[in-house]
Amino acid sequence: MSPPSEWQYVAAAYLVVFVAVLAWVGIIAAKLQRLQRQLAELVGKARERG
Amino acid sequence: MKLPALAAACTGLMGLAVGLIFFYAPTDADQGFSQRIFYFHVPIALTSYACFGWGAWKALRYLRTRDERADTESYVAIHQGVVFGALTLITGSIWAKASWGVWWSWGENQLVLFLVLFLFYCAYFMLRFSVDPGPARANMSAVYALFGVVLIPVSFLAIRLSQKFIHPVVFNAHGPQMAGSQFFTFCVAFVAMLALFATLYQVELAGKRIDAHVRELRELLR
Amino acid sequence: MTYLRDVGALTRKDLLLELRARETLPSMLLFVLAALTIFHFALPRGTGETAARGLLWSALVFTALLGLTRAFVAEREQGMFDALVLAPCDRSAIWLAKSLAVFAFLACAELVALPAFAAFFTGIDGRTVAAVALADVGICTVGTLFGAMAVAGRARELLLPLLFLPMAIPIVVGGVGGYLWFLVLYDAIFALLAWALFEYVVAET
What we know:
By secondary structure, chain A is mostly helical. Chain A has a domain at about 20-50. Helices cover about 90% and strands about 0% of the residues of chain A.
């Protein structure tokens, strides 16, 4: 493969930022899912108490 | 500012920034197309400083008020700062490769400064992991965050000095004055990046607060 | 006046403990000599004087780290931290006393290291000695505060180099370049910061 041309470097730089933000979104999403599960559990407990 | 509105503003600004960067800003006469990396690289770096500054401010608030929320806010800000700092290093490295064909340049003061700060603030997390949650950890984190923010200018000065005996300053990449259109694009990109930080910061904080509430609920319903 | 008296008493305590235990200082002496020897083997032939001088500063920083790591371990192991903190003295007096003690150890180590360096590598001039003295102030004041932090957690000795080395970078630059004014600036800023913030590091709440 020939050495990357200029625009490919620019694209790589912007891509890195894009991927980083998406990765961050993914991490927050996983955290939200966990919290959702825990909250459902607690709601169940609260209902039992009545 | 309400989070959805903030996120919308961030999205708009980012869209505008990228549009300007690729469709409006002229190709740089000296550095060619790869100069466009700057429009992201420098705002990310400046935002990183803003993160550390904000983190230090919240750290100071914590030491004054002993409010646990300030500690959390400080932590999240510094966390964001490290993320933006890592992005600074990566985009800076890509730009160095594009400009000079090397992945790293000790002659580039900003990059070297970020390396030092990156090392420093990564140790912040080591410190937090090493101590059990509580007022002691919050105190120490706050003190460390304050040292960090003072280190930024001191380190920068040190790096400038070191260039004299380490590395003749060959490239002055931030050199020539920017044309008006370039400067405008840069400013928009900078504000967009700050908006991104603000959005991510609020989201992460919201997550942490919910986490704390869930934990508290679990204790109460035990 | 009692502040200085407290500092004096605490420093004397540390120095006396070391005099009896004889653990820290001999280790530092041996370490710095070993480090200089390794550096001799690490330098290829024809290396300039500046490079050798740079290695002197590396050796000093790591030797200092050795001393700093030991600085609070005794307190931690004997559980004396709580006692010290309950003592009716300004918390920052603890920091100052500890800094002075570490400074003393470091200075003793350097009394050996600098002549050794001059013999092994290249001569030392007055400027370098002044730089070393100024750097010591920065290393001891900042390092003591971080040492107290490191000892509070689980990672202990592992944590101190991570916390301290980024802070040591400007010191090394000032030392190698001989920028005495910069070292004074560094010392003034960070000693002040450490003095002001130490009480938070050892506070319980």
